[in-house]
Amino acid sequence: MTNSTTLPPLSSAQTAVSFIDWLTQARPRAVLLDLDGTLVDTVADFDVALNQMLQQQQLPAITQAEIRQIVGKGSVHLIQSILAVKLSQAGLESGPEAVQQRFSAAWDAYLQTYLRINGQYATVYPGVTQGLQTLHDAGVRLAVVTNKPLALAQPLLKVKQLDALVEFLYGGDSFDRKKPDPYPLLQACERLQVPPEHTLMIGDSSNDAAAARAAGCGIALLRYGYNHGEPIDAVPAHGHFDSIIPIAEAVQSSLLSV
Ligand SMILES: O=C(O)COP(=O)(O)O
Ligand SMILES: [Mg+2]
Fold it and tell me: What is the ipTM for the molecules in this complex?
């Protein structure tokens, strides 16, 4: 079997065929959804919370383009990476010890601001509400599996009125392991009582793809998200899409066909 990292990039035409093939055979009864870069464009919220923290730390500001490259591996990774980059840009010691020294104060400042503004500047991507409604109406079970901490992810889903369509949410701190580890996806499948081979993960990054692949789930990737600043079409998946709507419609059709 070919290793995922050695698979060549798939063209859109190839992935469209392989997605239909996967759907025909899997007829998915559950869909797991990533949050940042998939359901909600959260970069503008991150912008406010991170720059408030950096100002307090007397470090250089961060741009939204830089944020898009770092989001997706959880908040601890986010703060640590940004402290290292900005300490270095300021010409200060930026090794792990220097980062660790500032981490606690930076984390507190970041969370305090984020909790206050959560969802105010972030926007739900076009097609998300309609796509989730289509899946919900087709009887597909929905859950969110994000690397964002629960304390931020839960209120965000509520404020964006996406919580009614989703049965539950696992955050980056729900378990000891987070994506790209398959563990949170496997836990979600177990709770939904749908086996991974009948479950589709919809995400925006190589993290989501790796977790889904290791769990044995199908994987559909969205091109509008972050993917750590790398081109998403180079990440092997069952399909690459510009909106959740065609994904939801294809899932719905696979369940209707005999
Ligand atoms: O790292 C984060 O905070 C967000 O990650 P997500 O893309 O898994 O929602
Ligand atoms: Mg994401």
Answer: 0.96
